[in-house]
């Protein structure tokens, strides 16, 4: 009960932050709303979200600004003011620090990259809150065209009548890994082709391989450029299904995006261990703005 009460208090603070990004927000005021001292609030917020309060507010403001640069023709100064910045100079400096380019260059490029969305509390998350995973933050990214050499198999996903992905995917990765012992800096990636195939009506084609590597006997798949929602997944591989389910049933309906058919990506950390509670990977789902 105490744990749930703590998370509810953080949720209330998050709601306030999300509704007032265009206004000055001070940590002391947030602490007062949370009924903690300033020191206690910052510590609890960091433990539950993995972020500092200032970092979270700054990234949301800049992400809102980046979206406005792409979706409107407003002046840069007007965008800065709408997102809580008091000068164009401070806005430009912070924007370049986060996105690696100026606001003008970002607008000219015309692609959503590095956008942070508001944190959401996941009630289905069974992982320890001490691991800073009680809240999930989805990222919006554009991925350039991708070429992968790897191996593939047909699988039935979690929403099919007879799922078999939990058996077939690990077997496929075992085959791939046998040929990859000599690779020093591995960049493992899984690709799921969700396009309908008449010969495999209830199945999807799953590819496993390593970026920037071409091993003997592997085939090639080309993935076109696409905009994605990036879902962080902590813990064993069984957490992937939970995270994607939460995204589809809770995050997506309240967002400004549609899910689209295409190529879903599984991007793993170099030393990913599928059964470890300390593992991390990202699931990339293709989307488009509503």
UniProtKB/TrEMBL annotation:
Pfam families: GyrI-like, HTH_18. The keyword DNA-binding applies. The keyword Cytoplasm does not apply. Residues 11-109 form the HTH araC/xylS-type domain. It comes from the Bacteria. Keywords: DNA-binding, Transcription, Transcription regulation. InterPro entries: AraC_E-bd (IPR010499), GyrI-like (IPR029442), Homeodomain-like_sf (IPR009057), HTH_AraC (IPR018060), MarA-like (IPR050959), Reg_factor_effector_dom_sf (IPR011256), Tscrpt_reg_AraC-type_HTH (IPR020449). Coiled coil: none annotated. GO terms for molecular function: DNA-binding transcription factor activity; sequence-specific DNA binding. Gene3D superfamilies: Homeodomain-like, Regulatory factor, effector binding domain. PANTHER family: RIGHT ORIGIN-BINDING PROTEIN (PTHR47504). This is AraC family transcriptional regulator. It comes from Marinomonas pollencensis.
């Amino acid at each position: 009960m105490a744990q749930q009460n703590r998370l509810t208090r953080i949720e209330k603070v998050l709601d306030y932050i999300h509704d007032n990004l265009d206004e000055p927000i001070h940590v002391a005021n947030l602490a007062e709303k949370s009924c903690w001292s300033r020191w206690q609030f910052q510590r609890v917020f960091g433990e539950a979200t993995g972020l500092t309060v200032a970092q979270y507010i700054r990234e949301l403001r800049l992400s809102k600004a980046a979206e406005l640069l792409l979706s409107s023709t407003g002046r840069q100064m007007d965008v800065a003011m709408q997102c809580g910045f008091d000068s164009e100079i401070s806005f430009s400096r912070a924007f370049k620090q986060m996105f690696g380019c100026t606001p003008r260059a970002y607008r000219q490029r015309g692609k959503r990259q590095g956008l942070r969305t508001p944190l959401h509390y996941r009630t289905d998350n069974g992982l320890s809150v001490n691991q800073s995973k009680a809240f999930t933050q989805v990222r919006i990214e554009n991925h350039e065209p991708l070429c992968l050499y790897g191996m593939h198999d047909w699988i039935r996903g979690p929403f099919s009548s007879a799922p078999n992905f939990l058996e077939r995917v690990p077997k496929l990765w075992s085959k791939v890994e046998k040929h990859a012992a000599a690779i020093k800096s591995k960049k493992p990636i899984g690709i799921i082709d969700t396009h309908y195939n008449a010969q495999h009506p209830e199945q999807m084609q799953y590819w496993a391989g390593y970026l920037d590597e071409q091993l003997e006997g592997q085939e090639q798949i080309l993935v076109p450029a696409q905009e994605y929602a990036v879902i962080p997944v902590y813990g064993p591989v069984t957490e992937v299904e939970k995270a994607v389910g939460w995204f589809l049933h809770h995050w997506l309906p309240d967002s400004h995006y549609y899910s689209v058919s295409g190529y879903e990506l599984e991007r793993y950390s170099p030393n990913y261990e599928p059964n470890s509670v300390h593992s991390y990977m990202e699931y990339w789902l293709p989307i488009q703005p509503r």
